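Section 5.1 Outputs to date
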Amino acid sequence: MPIKQVCPRCGQDWVHPYRFRADGTPFSLCTECDSLWWPGEAVEVAHAKFLDDVVAERLGVEGNPWGDLVWAEVIEPASDHGA
């Protein structure tokens, strides 16, 4: 059974396994502060990315990517991916 880890950035939630719906790319996410880590990265503040920035880059948009989208259209919870 995977060990739950508290988000090192905000300390307010667990880090959860997620994936992008379009291609299944896995990542770890704190749903409280939207910090994101790729598989193989240490879940530490120094390696944290901001979900909005990653989604904007993947969608090829500038700024806030959520204008006409909601999380469920772009990302979804995933089974543990060993990140």
